[in-house]
Design goal:
By secondary structure, the protein is α+β, with helices and mostly antiparallel strands. The chain contains 8 helices and 14 strands. A hairpin with a 5-residue loop joins β4 and β5.
Length: 373
């Protein structure tokens, strides 16, 4: 009982540690933070204010949307109230008979705020109206109209940019949860799956990978995040993928591959992270986007292969079964890349047949009826 609980606790701690040490999460977010910024560097974000507004969270965008309009209405409401008070238009100032106000029916701060709101939003109920006798009021209504138009354009642009962000298109492209290592076309390969959940194509799709690990140079320098290029391809090549259905991408493990020195019993003891990138252009919006994911050693299964997911119906239509998208089956695979290329029959999983549990074993007593020629 206590041994089982201890094992569960250790597994949870190991999982939390792997999450902390992962640079790129499974959904593509980068797990990195920047510190010790100089104070002057923060002004760079204000200089590039458009990108700053587009990248902030939705809750802050909505807060700025509400605050910018409400604050502008209130500030101009104070100015309209000041103009009415300076001209003696307010009821408590006892204006004389025949007095012409700058703005009709402004009786206090509340009505001045309502007039500011109606002016900037071009509502125009008709209860309050500007008279042409005050040049300052004419200038103020022009200024408020221009500033209101600028706020409208800016906030609408920010919201539309966030809605049409290429990051949202990347949400409909998914990778398999695990990577597998198995023989393919006479070589040992590391394979992953990627699928486009929309029927619209990704034009000019290219996929590549980076292996991140800590290395020591001959000079004694320790490189915390050493990057090694990992080439992925499909049977038709690695450029301009025809991304209409899920694809299985594979990396050939040869002598130039960083996976060549690994084996089935040492893979999980390694410390590295395989980051996979897919770049493409959305067909419907012509916007470029990048999809990222990563695999740690515990997410790479040696001696397994993906289940098939594409079939053809009797009507001639192709069908994709996403229930098998990340499912794998064991296959005969060498213990290491060196064994695969140099030692025949050295397999991690046996090539022997397996009993099919779906069949029932029966005894046949009668001799078969064999026709002799």
């Amino acid at each position: 009982m206590f041994g089982f609980l201890n094992k569960r606790i250790q597994d949870c701690l190991l999982e939390r540690k792997s999450r902390r040490t992962r640079l790129v999460t499974k959904d593509g977010r980068c797990n990195i933070e920047y510190g010790n910024f100089k104070y002057s560097k923060h002004f760079a974000f204000l200089a590039d204010f458009w990108t700053t507004f587009v990248e902030i969270r939705w809750r802050f965008v909505l807060f700025l949307f509400i605050a910018s309009f409400t604050l502008s209405w209130f500030i101009f409401g104070l100015l309209w109230y000041w103009i009415a008070r300076s001209n003696g238009d307010l009821p408590w100032q006892n204006p004389p008979l025949g007095h012409t106000p700058c703005v009709e029916n402004i009786e206090g701060l509340t009505t001045a705020f309502l007039y500011s709101l109606e002016t900037q939003t071009t509502i125009g109920y008709g209860g309050r109206a500007l008279t042409p006798l005050c040049p300052g009021a004419v200038a103020l209504i022009i200024i408020q109209s221009l500033i209101g138009a600028i706020i409208n354009c800016f906030m609408c642009g920010v919201i539309l940019s966030k809605i049409s962000s290429p990051k949202k298109r990347a949400k409909t492209i998914t990778f398999s949860d695990m990577a597998v290592i198995s023989p393919k076309n006479g070589t040992l390969s590391l394979s992953i799956r990627v699928a486009n959940l929309r029927k619209t194509l990704m034009i000019g799709s290219q996929i590549y990978g980076k292996l991140l690990r800590t290395t020591n140079t001959p000079d004694g320098e320790t490189i915390i995040m050493d990057q090694v290029n990992i080439d992925f391809m499909v049977d038709a090549g690695k450029d301009n993928l025809f991304f209409i259905c899920p694809l299985t991408l594979y990396h050939t493990i040869d002598k130039s591959s960083p996976f060549f020195d690994m084996a089935v019993d040492t893979l999980n003891k390694q410390e590295f992270e395989l980051v996979v990138f897919l770049d493409g252009t959305a067909e419907s919006t012509s916007s470029s986007c990048q999809v990222r994911t990563s695999f740690i050693p515990q997410e790479i299964m040696w001696g397994y292969n993906f289940l098939p997911i594409i079939s053809r119906s009797k009507e001639g239509k192709y069908r994709v079964d996403f229930s098998n998208f990340s499912k794998v089956v064991p296959v005969a695979t060498a213990h290491c890349a060196y064994c695969f290329h140099n030692i025949k029959g050295h397999h991690h999983h046996s090539k022997d047949g397996r009993d099919n549990q779906g069949f029932e074993v029966i005894d046949i007593n009668d001799p078969p009826n064999v026709t002799k020629m």
